[in-house]
């Protein structure tokens, strides 16, 4: 399998961490693929017309897009426990994953807005991104107990990648301030071998 990936992408890191947790790293060829919202990568577009990573190309040429879909595929391949196939817990876990993915989405939009020349940045958007980020991180702070109690899964992976991305791109955010439970949860997450092996870098 070929994974279009980058060491800076939090979505691609979700797949990387899952591959480590599931013992699949040796079956994947990691292809470092440059993407940017304003610069379509035409080589990647042959596989994924949206020019997004992660994109997984299977041995038979089938292309899978979207980190959540790719993690479900890898998990199913080895009968792993990262995404429960059924049961009430499945919806809680998938919804938590979606919330963490949404946090990455907001941080990405925020970063794109901040990278524009100052006169083109929207103060309204910047303040909306800050408010949504704070509210989402607060929500995770309140549910940190439940997070810690559950089996390690795709929801934890997505949240860990979102918070690591906040550290990587928003050193001024101070998301740990007044969020001791989430900070403790994240510290434990960061020490997992799969997280240590996939830390983002430039
Ligand atoms: N929902 C997608 C989001 C993937 C995504 O937006 N990836 C970013 C990299 S972090 C990207 O490819 N950006 C390039 C672009 O938007 O053109 C997923 O979960 O895989």
TrEMBL record:
<dbReference type="InterPro" id="IPR036249">
    <property type="entry name" value="Thioredoxin-like_sf"/>
</dbReference>
<dbReference type="InterPro" id="IPR050983">
    <property type="entry name" value="GST_Omega/HSP26"/>
</dbReference>
<protein>
    <recommendedName>
        <fullName>GST N-terminal domain-containing protein</fullName>
    </recommendedName>
</protein>
<feature type="domain" description="GST N-terminal">
    <location>
        <begin position="1"/>
        <end position="82"/>
    </location>
</feature>
<dbReference type="Pfam" id="PF13409">
    <property type="entry name" value="GST_N_2"/>
</dbReference>
<dbReference type="GO" id="GO:0005737">
    <property type="term" value="C:cytoplasm"/>
</dbReference>
<dbReference type="InterPro" id="IPR004045">
    <property type="entry name" value="Glutathione_S-Trfase_N"/>
</dbReference>
<dbReference type="InterPro" id="IPR036282">
    <property type="entry name" value="Glutathione-S-Trfase_C_sf"/>
</dbReference>
<dbReference type="Pfam" id="PF13410">
    <property type="entry name" value="GST_C_2"/>
</dbReference>
């Amino acid at each position: 399998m070929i994974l279009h990936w980058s060491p800076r992408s939090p979505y691609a890191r979700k797949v990387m961490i899952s591959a480590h947790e599931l013992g699949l790293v040796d079956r994947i060829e990691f292809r470092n693929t440059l993407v940017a919202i304003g610069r379509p990568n035409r080589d990647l577009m042959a596989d994924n017309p949206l020019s997004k990573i992660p994109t997984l190309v299977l041995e038979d040429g089938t292309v899978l897009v979207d980190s959540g879909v790719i993690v479900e595929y890898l998990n199913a391949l080895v009968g792993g426990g990262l995404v429960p196939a059924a049961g009430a817990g499945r919806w809680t876990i998938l919804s938590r994953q979606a919330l963490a993915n949404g946090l990455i989405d907001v941080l990405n939009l925020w970063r794109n807005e901040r990278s524009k020349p100052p006169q083109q940045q929207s103060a309204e958007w910047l303040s909306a991104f800050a408010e949504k980020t704070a509210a989402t991180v607060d929500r995770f702070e309140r549910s940190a107990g439940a997070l810690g109690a559950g089996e390690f899964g795709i929801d934890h992976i997505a949240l860990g990648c979102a918070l690591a991305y906040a550290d990587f791109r928003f050193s001024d955010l101070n998301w740990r301030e007044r969020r001791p439970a989430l900070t403790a949860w994240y510290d434990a997450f960061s020490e997992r071998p799969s997280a240590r092996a996939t830390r983002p870098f430039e």
